[in-house]
Backbone:
C-alpha cells in the first residue's frame, strides 16, 4: 500500500508524503530527547541525586547524538532510510522505557546516554537534510525549515504534557507517553517511508526533465564517514561552520534544552509552567525555523546566521533578569529566543551544500553536527557543575551569550576564501 495509490492524492508529489512521515518521526524523537529535562527535578526529589549527576547521562546522550550523525548518513546510504529509521526507533524505546525501574544514576548512562543518544542521533537533522536533498530540487530550504521545526513542534506537543503528568500523576507515567508515541509512528514508517524518488518511478520535486539522479554510494559506512572528515579538516569552511555550530549546540540543547526547567524551578516557577514556556517557545521556534528555510532560498545564509547568533546572544544575556520578572519576562524571552532556537539549521545546511556539494552535504553536515553536539554536551554537564558550585545558572547564561557573539563573527567568514585563495561562489537560491 502507498499513499500515492489513493486517488485524491495522486497529484501530490510523493516527496511531500515523505516529508509528513519524516516530520512525525522527528517530532517523536524530539519528545524522547526532551523528556530527561522534565525528569531532572522529580528524580532529584525522589532519589536525592545531584543536578550534575543527572546531567551527566544527558550530556553523554547529546555527545552520542552528534557522533552518530555522519555514520547514520553513511548507513542510510548503505542500508536504506526505512531500515535505519526503524532501528533507531527501537533504540528510543530501549533508551527511555527502562527508566521507570532505574534507581541509580549510573543506570541512566547506558539508557539515556547510549541507546537514546544513538536513536535520537540517527533521527536528527541528518535525516532531514537527506530527505530535502534527495526528494527536492526546488523548495529544499522550505522543506529543511519544516523538518527542522519538528523539534519545536515536539516541544509544543510533549513538554507541557510530560511536565503536568510528572507533577500530578508521577514521573514514571510521563516516561510512558513518548514511548507510546514511538509505537504509533513505527507503522507509518513501514508503510510510507521511501528511500529516494526513483524507488517509485519519480524524479525529485522540481527536477528538470533531463535530471539524472546521482548514484548513492554503497561504500563501507565507517570508511566513507572518516574519508569525509579527512576532506573536511582540510577545508577552512568546515572549521568555521563547525565552530559556530559548537556554539549553537552549547546555547540551545545543552543549556536551555536541559536546564531551562530546573532554572525556572530554582526561581519559584512551577515545573509545569516552565514546560509551558518551553512549549510557547516552540511556537515561535517553528515560525522562525520555517521562515529561516524560506529565507535561505533567497538571502545569503551568512548574514542570516550572523543575525540569528547576535539575537540569541542578547536573549541569553537577558534571561537571568527574565527569571526574576515573573511570567511576562520569561514570555518576552521565549518570543525572541524561540524565533531562532533552531533557525540556524537551514542556512547552515545551505552553506554546507555550497561548500561541499549537494551529494556530500549530508555527511559533511553530519560532522558539523558533531561539533554542535560536543557544544551541547559541554553545556549540559558544565551548567550542572556551575550550578553545583554557584547555586544558580547566571554564569552559564552569560558564557553562552558571549559565545553567540563570537559565532556571529565566524559565520561571516564562511566561503570568503578557499585553500587556493579563490573566493567560491555562494548561492543565495
Residues:
Amino acid at each position: 500500500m502507498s499513499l500515492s495509490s489513493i486517488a485524491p492524492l495522486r497529484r501530490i508529489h510523493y516527496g511531500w508524503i515523505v516529508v509528513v512521515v519524516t516530520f512525525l518521526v522527528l517530532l517523536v524523537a524530539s519528545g524522547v530527547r526532551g523528556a530527561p529535562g522534565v525528569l531532572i527535578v522529580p528524580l532529584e526529589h525522589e532519589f536525592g541525586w545531584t543536578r550534575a549527576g543527572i546531567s551527566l547521562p544527558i550530556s553523554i546522550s547529546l555527545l552520542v547524538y552528534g557522533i552518530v550523525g555522519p555514520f547514520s548518513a553513511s548507513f542510510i546510504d548503505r542500508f536504506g532510510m526505512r531500515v535505519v529509521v526503524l532501528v533507531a526507533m527501537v533504540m528510543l524505546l530501549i533508551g527511555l522505557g527502562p527508566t521507570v525501574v532505574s534507581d541509580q544514576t549510573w543506570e541512566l548512562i547506558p539508557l539515556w546516554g547510549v541507546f537514546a543518544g544513538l536513536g535520537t542521533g540517527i533521527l536528527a537533522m541528518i535525516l532531514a537534510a537527506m530527505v530535502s536533498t534527495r526528494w527536492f530540487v526546488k523548495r529544499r530550504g522550505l522543506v529543511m525549515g519544516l523538518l527542522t521545526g519538528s523539534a519545536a513542534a515536539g516541544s509544543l506537543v510533549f513538554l507541557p504534557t510530560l511536565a503536568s503528568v510528572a507533577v500530578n500523576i508521577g514521573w514514571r507515567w510521563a516516561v510512558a507517553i513518548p514511548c507510546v508515541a514511538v509505537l504509533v509512528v513505527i507503522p507509518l514508517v513501514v508503510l510510507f517511508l521511501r528511500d529516494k524518488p526513483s524507488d517509485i518511478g519519480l524524479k525529485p520535486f522540481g527536477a528538470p526533465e533531463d535530471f539524472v539522479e546521482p548514484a548513492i554510494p554503497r561504500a563501507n559506512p565507517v570508511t566513507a564517514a572518516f574519508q569525509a572528515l579527512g576532506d573536511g579538516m582540510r577545508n577552512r569552511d568546515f572549521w568555521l561552520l563547525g565552530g559556530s555550530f559548537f556554539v549553537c549546540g552549547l546555547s540551545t540543547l545543552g543549556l536551555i534544552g536541559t536546564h531551562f526547567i530546573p532554572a525556572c524551578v530554582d526561581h519559584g516557577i512551577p515545573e509545569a509552567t516552565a514546560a509551558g514556556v518551553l512549549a510557547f517557545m516552540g511556537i515561535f521556534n517553528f515560525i522562525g525555523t520555517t521562515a529561516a528555510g524560506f529565507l535561505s532560498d533567497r538571502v545569503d545564509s551568512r548574514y542570516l546566521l550572523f543575525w540569528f547568533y547576535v539575537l540569541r546572544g542578547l536573549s541569553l544575556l537577558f534571561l537571568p533578569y527574565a527569571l526574576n520578572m515573573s511570567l511576562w519576562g520569561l514570555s518576552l524571552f521565549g518570543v525572541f529566543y524561540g524565533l531562532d532556537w533552531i533557525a540556524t539549521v537551514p542556512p547552515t545546511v545551505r552553506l554546507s551544500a555550497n561548500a561541499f556539494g549537494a551529494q556530500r552535504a549530508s555527511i559533511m553536515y553530519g560532522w558539523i553536527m558533531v561539533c554542535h553536539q560536543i557544544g551541547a554536551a559541554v553545556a549540559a554537564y558544565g551548567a550542572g557543575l556551575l550550578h553545583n558550585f554557584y547555586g544558580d545558572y547566571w554564569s552559564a547564561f552569560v558564557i553562552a551569550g558571549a559565545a553567540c557573539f563570537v559565532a556571529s563573527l565566524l559565520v561571516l567568514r564562511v566561503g570568503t576564501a578557499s585553500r587556493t585563495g579563490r573566493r567560491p561562489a555562494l548561492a543565495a537560491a
